[in-house]
Amino acid sequence: MTERKYLIYLDILGYEGLAEEIGRKKGIDERDVREKFIKKIQEKVNSLGNKITGQNYGERDDWILVTDSLDNAFYCIAEITDHYTGYKGYERIPLEFAIGTGEYDRWARFEGHKLIHENSTIKFLKSYIINYYHEWYKEKHEHSIKSTFVILTDSAYSDMEPLDRKICEEIEHNRDDKGETIRFFHADASRVEKRGRILKFLEEIHLPGNRRYKWIEDVYVEPREYDEIFKTLKEKRILFITGTPEYGKTFTAVRLMWEFYKQGYGVRWRMGGEEAERIEVRRRLEDIEIELEPKHVIYFEDPFGKIKYEKRGGLEREIGTIIETVRKVEDVYVIITSREEVFKEFEKERLSGTELRDFERRLNIKRPSYDYEKRERMLINWAEESNCRWLENEELKELVLDRIRKGKILPTPLSIREFAVASSNIENEEKLRKLLEEKSKETARAFAEEIKKMTDDKILFLSFSFIWIFKIEFLREMYQELVDELHLKGAWEFDRVLDWFKDDKIDINKVFGGKRILFSHPSYAEALEFILTENGYPSRINKEIFSKVLIKLPEIEEAAWGVAWAVAENFDRLPKNVRKLLFKLSEREEAAGYVVWAVAGNFDRLPKNVRKLLFKLAEKKEAALDVAMAVAENFNEVPEDVRKLLFKLSEREEAAKDVAWAVAWYFNRLPEDVRNQLLLKLSEKKEAAEYLAMVVSENFDKIPEDVRGRVIDALAKNSDRIPVVPWNRPLELSKKG
């Protein structure tokens, strides 16, 4: 049994000549310079602690270090190169690093000279890639290299993660004297050092090796508000980052800490993931004077609650004092994150007169903070980090990128990362489609959890948007009536709730003849299915609020469409008395068409007795157009007996024109054989002539010549006049008789 280790060869570059040069310019003994260099590097090596499992210092100016991972190798390089010689103009010693691998058994010895007697160590040293790199560099540049460099053996490169490989250049060096080609890799030294510094940063915030943040330079995509966020923190020195769940608040806070860390600041993260941690975060925030230290950044995560508001009287009373205390301490910065809803609750309860909005910056799905280009870049970054196979397939890559153009697919940074991680080994189109939907649904589930924690008056308000896009005036009246009927104590008035949500979860748009309220993002609407049930049964919110709204609305014509669709789409989640609304609506002439669309659009999820409504309504003259249109739109999703309704309707003189209109509207969606059969059948019906002529005109080249000719002849026989043709394209009708 052997264990893989990583070997680092370290040498001072230009050891003899550099010391001579410094000694000559500074007027000091070159031997003292060399001794100081050796001492400085040895001090850095000694500071590595448990990052290395063994080391050997050579007789001159080289070292061999042994470590357990490539991350540790990068950490060691960053630590060793972070030194100061004290010589102006020569502040850092130029070094040469080579990274290789070795297989060591349990008897392997890593102490001092024992290390170089191990077979794997000998093999690594005999690879001579340091010498080969010097040869290659001099041939290419016609002078020797003078700055720090990092090279890797083929085996070490093979173990690198995808994003680490991006900083490497493959080198093939032809040795004329041997007639062989040597292959190794050169890594960008500055980026290796940065990778190591990030690993050091993660240890500072107590997340050593964390996969989410170790690539913060490579995968993080700035939200559109980032410059404003950074400016606010620099100017005001305390910042509240609020916004939508899963929308990158924590990642942005970590990125801010990293930016300051690179400038030499100390960083502290007071984590609030668990309830006990949040209690401690609130306590520390109240006693913030103890936390504050110049040239430091302190991050307090979710002190006001994770999903719901968690009250602590001291914070509500002292927040103004906390802000002023921070601003009095020189060169210290404080970041606080909170979900939008939780922060609004805290702000409502605060006793301090300080206006918190002056210190708040939002990451919001409504705006949105990440447009399609940013989400695409984010997805590609994470897919590269996860080494996703689909990324190498242009068709699959285009499929994924095309799907996320629709805002409800992978709408948040968290859903994007989780999809990339979960899809790393997937190369099947159908599996990718399914996973895209699944990870997008998880965002809707998170939104549902947020809504569940709200007070009943806010849930009542949002319930209307789950059903339809209602006019504000209508909602104001309905909301107040239901507040009274449901006996909601302490409920806010309508305009106050509207003001609460308008910056985040809802939009107010002027559509359909008036100002109407709708969700700001489709993922909020998708949250409904996770709100309506608990452990497979209708939830309290369902029975006590949402269903009561549905029952009240059907009598109002404007609401009938939304009610029909909401019941059909959530049929199995609703109480039995609410399910009956579909049957009641189908009996009303003005609402029957709405039921048609709702049933056809949700046909596969409805029970048999509800499906029959579609066939029953097809017999009604006033519902014929809706049946024809709904069946045509959902043609590929409904079973054969439903598809046949188009042919049955086309046999009825008064319904033929409705089928003709459906064929015209959905021509490209219908299979060719179906539309050809319908065209021939409809050509026999005089009532369908005008619409049929339009179909032929607009799709002239898509209709087979024999079918087209027969339809045109039939139109000529059955029409009193040649129909008007759109786009002024003539129909060559052969008038007979």
Care to describe what's here?
- It contains 37 helices and 17 strands.
- By secondary structure, the chain is an alpha/beta fold.
- The protein has four domains: 2-191, Nucleotide cyclase, GGDEF domain (Alpha-Beta Plaits), CATH 3.30.70.1230; 205-363, Rossmann fold (3-Layer(aba) Sandwich), CATH 3.40.50; 372-449; 644-737, no CATH class.
- The strands form four sheets. The chain has a seven-stranded mixed β-sheet with strand order 2-3-1-4-5-7-6, sandwiched between helices.
- A hairpin with a 4-residue loop joins β6 and β7 (180-187).
- The longest helix has 24 residues, at 429-452.
- The model is unreliable at 721-737 (pLDDT under 50).
Give a short synopsis of this structure:
With 737 residues, the protein is α/β, with parallel strands linked by helices. A hairpin with a 4-residue loop joins β2 (54-57) and β3.
Percent range for β-strand residues: 5-15%
**Spans of at least 5 consecutive residues with low confidence:** 721-737
Q: Give the CATH level 1 class of the largest domain.
A: Alpha Beta
Q: Please tell me the total number of domains.
A: 4
Total number of beta strands? 17
Radius of gyration: 35 Å
Please give the largest β-sheet: 7 strands, mixed
Instruction: Based on the coordinates given, report the CATH architecture of the largest domain.
Output: 2-Layer Sandwich
The CATH superfamily name of the largest domain is: Nucleotide cyclase, GGDEF domain
Distance between the termini: 98 Å
**CATH fold name of the largest domain:** Alpha-Beta Plaits
Shape: globular
What average pLDDT do the residues reach?
Answer: 91
> Helicity range of the residues?
40-55%
Question: For the largest beta sheet, what order do the strands appear in spatially?
Answer: 2-3-1-4-5-7-6
